[in-house]
């Protein structure tokens, strides 16, 4: 608990300074609302925010799950064949140089305003960290272990299932943690292009209506949502790879 | 009729850019512990890689129980200097690693693995993850895993090389106990002359690269061996002799 006290204290101090500065300098609410006004605005529009929260979570989850499957597929493909690796790898990097905000209206043009273009954007944002981490995990397996299995006469399939896959899980979860945080952000951005529900669209509407306090409230919710999704990944990781987390030593 | 050696290696040679192993011949009798010592980097590990079938020899013959074996993967219990335990598997499952590779029935193998753990005092650690074990314990588990996979002939590649002296000597006694109970045939490499003398029936001395058998010394110390033997005059005499050969 002790290690949490300083960040909490610091955060509190920032909020306090913010609160007092706003009232001290008489800053207009539509330019910068105070923390108390933001909390108040959140409480006022809580049912509205909840109404817009649901589709965002839904899209983010579907997009992330899609990204997981795509990532596993691509990583295994690259692991299995040097040729595939040489073909795919550069395009993986290039895919990350495309500004997704520009891509979003194009996808809307091609796929309409429905769920599909949104999920494609989220998956595009999320798949990269998972793929790269998983692939690095495959590559990072101790060569001595491979030699051991080789001496036992294991085939490639067995080596993959017995060693490469489990050994890469910590790396996979590292990537997934990043992707989980991206997924919420991806969902919000994808909604800017057109949606009737979602935190992204609520954000746009609030900005255009100069409801700056609500903008901040929504930003706060997006932040909390991202943290929660990272925490969920963390919990799943701790449950599925407990060996990675318990490193206490016992002497014989 | 006298039985022939368990393992015969004849004129084994391997070269990559340069010659690494040159016409090595050695044999191991049933129930014998044979060690191979030589200057570091002389090709001991490469020799084991060839024997185990990971590398293919350019020339030479390897016979197990009198029969020539060309596909040798899976025919030895091969253990390395590092324990190479899988951190995601508990001790018991680590020991059972080989079952799937050999295509055996899991439950049967589990009974055998538990039996092995019980017999050699690791039963209480069955459900431990390797990360919770000390270096010496890890190596004990690795040894049992090797035996569980294939106890016909063991290839131990500097198995105690990364352990501290005290742990190492306790592992020596552990290995000898297992060897006696299971009547194993063992070849191991080391660069520690005392270890070689203490454990072996015979010691092969390899020359510098390209590796070749320089000499083979019989160790005439009575068994069972005890820590006290390490300071006996006979032991010291052997040590001097081997030292002069290296």
Largest β-sheet summary of chain B: 6 strands, mixed
For the termini of chain A, the CA-CA separation is 32 Å
Query: What's the CATH H-level superfamily name of chain A?
Result: MetI-like
Indicate the structural class of chain A.
mainly alpha
β content of chain A, as a range? under 5%
Number of strands of chain B: 10
SSE order of chain A: HHHHHHHHHHH
How many strands, which pairing sense, and closed or not: the largest β-sheet of chain A?
Answer: none
Lateral strand order in the biggest sheet of chain B: 6-7-8-3-9-10
Number of helices of chain B: 8
Largest interface: A-B, 28 and 28 residues
CATH class of the largest domain in chain B: Alpha Beta
- Assess the beta-strand content of chain B as a share of residues: 15-25%
Low-confidence stretches of chain B: none
The number of domains of chain B:
2
Structure explained in plain terms:
The complex is a heterodimer of chains A (252) and B (246). Chain A has a single domain (34-242), classed as Orthogonal Bundle (MetI-like fold), CATH 1.10.3720. Chain A is built from 11 helices and no strands. Chain A is globular and about 75 Å long. Chain A has 252 residues and is mostly helical. Helix content of chain A is 83%, strand content 0%. In chain B, the strands form 2 sheets. In chain B, strands 6-7-8-3-9-10 form a 6-stranded mixed beta sheet, sandwiched between helices. Chain B has a 4-stranded antiparallel beta sheet with strand order 2-1-4-5, with helices on one face. In chain B, a hairpin with a 2-residue loop joins strand 4 (59-64) and strand 5. Chain B is built from 8 helices and 10 strands. At the A-B interface, helix 7, helix 8 and helix 11 of A face helix 3 and helix 5 of B.
